[in-house]
Write a structure and sequence with these properties.
heterotrimer, A alpha/beta, B alpha+beta, C alpha/beta, B: 3 domains, two-stranded antiparallel sheet, 4 helices, C: about 30% helix
């Protein structure tokens, strides 16, 4: 199901230069498309100086010469799940980093994507604490401003450090962050593992609609609760947040609870059912979104 | 199977955020923020995230319409254009070009605005051109 | 905007006046938050307690329509404390002494009496703005939609020049554009007095240049503004109106007046993507395409010309706006036959000096900011770097004037109008969107808890709002976003049309109506 490309010398060269490793990758995708191992391959292509997600097809396999690996990280797995929901018969190839892979694992165990429909090429570049080493752009986080450090939560803070604040101070700091919210729903929309048809964040009975900021902290805490056992720490939510709320830290905390209490390591395996933690394993038929 | 990502610009407010339209088999299925865009840097507001929804609304106009017996009815382009051209020309003939006004739009493109004011000035022959910048 | 969106992040002070930025320009609000978090000072002045005010170093809710007095009051304090930038004033501006004489009279006591803003807040605003450089001033329709709109804008320019903030990175006077291509529509000559790039129609050279390019003699008298057009319709002078992508029936002030005007037209032609309230009344409706179905360019608030790319085919028989205009023009005997939007762009750029250096290829996905006069020019991040467009920046001594309508015994409340975060303008695009509609399904009236108590109102109770021009019903939303004595109605909703209430009195120069202020009566509906 997956093939690892080892020894990735310049994983973030976005120049489109043909290094031997790029050739390797391109050749492999090209071969997959030509052989029919996959019908499409979701990767990246440079468009007028911007790395954009791109769907390479078997109809046009030589376009793989333009396949790149760049700093940009889009939710290719969410695109794959959306495509698969419409076209369950096709095989989808995917360029994945470790976070994409964890997202895929979550989609598999929640029966949102059929693993038989997916082929991946994995590259190592994971910034998560779940992983020792990584080369992703998110490993060079932007420093938080002085005022934010003073009254809010530094986006680069560890859970442990954040917990050193007194409960009252922690509350005020988080409320500062939440109150900036412009209610774009970007955190949910970008999330590769948000797939519910009905979303609690839109439930008028739970959270009043029509105001900015939304009701705080309930709006953010409802989402945080739903991220327990779901979040794979890819950082896309925080990256999509127009007001720099440290969402990743928040969800890391809820996931830590799940890990501590149930020994459930979200996204780390494609065969550990989340339903196990409540008792006997429940098996469901694969049911796309 | 045809899946495309088309970079474009949000058409709501004046920020000018970069968006990516997701197109599956010719149907617009979603909007994403463009990560490397100089304005929005991979973020959008609620309107931007839902930009595709108005495009695919079933309330979209799909054909020109002409009022007949007090009711707007679907018409061909040839008919709608001919009726409009004839009536505009008659009004210009009877009352002069300044009896016609053209409201261009803050929603259409530069090219279309250029053409619309050219139409007013060169074809109708009036400077009665304005839009909603004031509104 | 004189400056660029990204520059806001590096300002030392940001002064937001008459802009509900997190609601109306969320991705510009992002830059304000980032600047604040890096240590910038934030000043917010708005008659409502807007979201951004929570994060301000000083936030005031000045009385509706009192902006000139507020700004004069702040400038009075700056000058008294000798905080103004004298070298800049001397080298780059003129008219300072006359201006200073006017501001002299705006003592804190006088200003507090007009605006309701206390002396300590005025002093704090003055100090923060004047002593943290560069300071960026941001405003929107809260400044412009007044009978004193031009005076308000002049006052914003005065304070920026007073502290040397024009022509510097991260400073400037920055009107945030409300619609995606307001900037472009103005740049392209969508105005009664100018050709593209603000080349005045009455100047012979300009007229000849365009007449030659278009092969047609052109009118050399300034035309009607939208405000004039309504009156001309009522007077029977304007017989035909061609409306492209607008919904004046909901968006213009004093709706009843507009409806009467439209009824007098011999021909109303509407071009839109939806059957808007205005289109329903039209004689002919042209079905146009949306942003996703065409090529072209938009110019954003920071003068950045950006390329729009076609994602899907037009729905049904809809045509692009340029194709419709071309067909109509050809049918009227002036042939227009363009291959595509790019060919029109190529015709436009040589006639439009600020866009002359642009091409689709150069725009790419980042766009280019005008002025971009030649094909080597990188575009312009901020304006007036070395000198003002007119040479020296001109100070204007501006006296405060009351809005056209003030509350009285019969209509005792102030009413103001504006946007909500999930909707846009007359709602034609947003109310058909499931997710946006779900956030806000109806109009409402924001009322302060104290006023609600006086009227024995519960949240959601229906109220009647009446002004000298019309009446609407809407549910009450009890909120501390408004002060006692002030009501707010969003203008997106045809069933509670805010513009049935608004005043069509307009600024004598800009002809912009006073949407932001009128006097209103409120009663609980029976």
């Amino acid at each position: 199901m997956e093939e690892q490309i080892k020894e990735w010398p310049e994983p973030f060269s976005t120049t489109g230069d043909k290094t031997s490793t790029f050739d390797n990758l391109r050749d492999q995708v090209n071969a997959w498309l030509k052989e029919g191992k996959v019908d499409i391959f979701l990767g990246y292509k440079m468009v007028q100086g911007h790395p954009l997600p791109h769907c390479f097809t078997k109809e046009n396999p030589d376009e793989t010469d333009e396949l790149i690996v760049g700093k940009a990280r889009y939710s290719l797995e969410k695109m794959a799940a959306n495509i698969a929901a419409q076209r369950p018969e096709i095989k989808i190839g995917l360029l994945v980093r470790d976070c994409n892979q964890r997202a895929l694992n979550v989609l598999y165990v929640w029966n949102q994507l059929n693993p038989d429909q997916v082929e991946t090429i994995n590259i190592n570049c994971c910034p998560s604490r779940l992983k020792e080493h990584g080369d992703c752009s998110y490993l060079e986080p932007q420093p938080s401003g002085s005022y934010k450090k003073q009254v809010g939560i530094d986006n680069n803070m560890d859970v442990e450090v954040a917990e050193e604040f007194s409960q009252e101070e922690r509350f005020h700091r988080w409320m500062y962050e939440f109150e900036k919210c412009i209610k774009c729903y970007g955190c949910r929309n970008i999330c590769p593992v948000c797939f519910c048809q009905e979303c609690s964040m839109e439930h008028n009975d739970l959270i009043a609609t029509g105001t900015v900021p939304p009701e705080v902290p309930i709006f953010h805490l409802v989402r945080a609760v739903h991220m327990a056992g779901r979040c794979i720490d890819c950082g896309l939510c925080e990256d999509a947040c127009p007001v720099d709320i440290p969402l990743r830290l928040l969800y890391r905390k809820v996931n830590q609870v799940v890990s501590d209490m149930f020994d459930y390591k979200t996204g780390m395996r494609a065969d550990q059912s989340p339903f196990n933690i409540l008792g006997d394993e429940v098996t469901l038929e694969p049911k796309p979104i | 199977m045809d899946y495309k990502i088309i970079p474009s610009i949000c058409s709501y407010c004046g920020c000018g955020c970069g968006v990516l339209f997701q197109v599956l088999d010719g149907r617009l299925t979603g909007t994403l923020p463009m990560k490397t865009h100089p304005v929005n840097q991979g973020k959008l507001c609620i309107k931007g995230w839902n930009l595709h929804e108005h495009v695919i609304s079933d309330k979209r106009l799909t054909s020109p319409m002409v009022k007949k017996d007090g009711q707007l009815q679907e018409a061909s382009w040839d008919e709608a254009i001919r009726i409009t051209a004839d009536r505009l020309q008659a009004i210009i003939k009877d009352h002069g070009p300044d009896s016609v006004g053209v409201l261009v739009s803050a929603k259409i493109t530069n090219e279309e605005n250029y053409l619309a004011q050219k139409f007013a000035r060169a074809v109708v022959g009036t400077n009665n051109v304005d839009h909603c910048a004031r509104l | 905007m004189t400056n660029s969106i990204a520059e806001i992040e590096d300002a030392a002070c940001i002064f937001v006046i008459g802009s509900n930025t997190t609601v109306c320009h969320p991705l510009i609000a992002r830059r304000i938050f980032r600047a604040k978090e890096k240590g910038a000072k934030l000043i917010v002045a708005d008659p409502r307690n807007i979201h951004l005010a929570r994060f301000a170093d000083v936030a005031v809710t000045h009385r509706l329509g009192s902006d000139v007095a507020l700004l004069n009051g702040i400038m009075h304090i700056i000058i008294k404390n000798d905080w103004h930038l004298k070298t800049y004033i001397q080298d780059r501006t003129e008219g300072f002494d006359e201006f200073k004489a006017v501001v002299e009279a705006y003592t804190p006591d006088k200003v507090e009496a007009i605006t309701g803003v206390v002396r300590t807040d005025l002093e704090r605003m003055a100090e923060l703005y004047a002593t943290n450089s560069p300071a960026a001033l941001l405003y929107t329709m809260g400044i412009t939609q007044h009978t004193t709109g031009v005076d308000n804008v002049k006052s914003c320019c005065n304070i920026a020049m007073l502290c040397g903030n024009v022509g510097v990175r991260s400073g400037g006077v920055n009107p945030l554009r409300g619609q995606n291509n307001v900037q472009g529509a103005c740049d392209m000559g969508g105005l009664p007095n100018v050709f593209p790039a603000y080349q005045v129609v009455t100047v012979e050279g300009n007229n000849k240049k365009f007449a030659k390019a278009w092969g047609k003699e052109l009118p050399d008298q300034v035309g009607y503004t939208i405000t004039d057009m309504v009156q001309a319709m009522l007077d029977g002078k304007l017989k035909a109106l061609y409306v492209i992508g607008e919904n004046p029936k909901l968006s213009d002030p004093d709706q009843n007046h507009i409806i009467t005007a439209f009824e007098k037209l011999e021909l109303l032609v509407c071009q839109d993507i939806f059957l808007s309230e205005t289109a329903e009344q039209a004689d002919v409706v042209f079905a146009a395409v949306s942003v996703a179905e065409k090529e072209g360019t938009f110019t954003n608030s920071e003068r950045r010309c950006l390329k729009v790319n076609k994602a899907i085919d037009p729905v049904g028989d809809a045509l692009t706006d340029w194709e419709i205009i071309s067909r109509l023009s050809t049918a009227m005997g002036y042939e227009m036959s363009y291959e595509g939007a790019e060919e029109i762009f190529q015709e436009m750029t040589p006639l439009t000096p600020s866009y002359a250096g642009m091409s689709y290829e150069r725009l790419g996905l980042d766009g280019l900011q005008w002025p971009c006069p030649d094909s080597q020019h990188p575009g312009t991040e901020f304006l007036h770097a070395n000198q003002f467009a007119r040479g020296k920046g001109l100070f204007h001594g501006v006296e405060y004037l009351d809005p056209a309508e003030m509350p009285d015994d019969e209509y005792p409340y102030f009413l103001t109008t504006g946007r909500t975060f999930s909707h846009y303008h007359t709602g034609t695009m947003t109310r058909v969107s499931k997710n946006l509609d779900a956030e806000q399904k109806t109009g409402y009236v924001e009322i302060h808890p104290r006023d609600a108590e006086k009227l024995a109102l519960q949240n959601g109770d229906t109220v009647n709002l009446t002004t000298r021009r019309g009446a609407i019903q809407a549910p009450a939303r009890i909120s501390e976003q408004v002060k006692p004595g002030l009501l707010f109605v969003p203008f997106h909703f045809a069933e509670n049309p805010a513009n049935a209430l608004t005043n069509s009195a307009f600024d004598p120069i800009a002809k912009i109506p006073e949407y932001k202020v009128c006097a209103v009566k409120i009663e609980k509906a029976a």
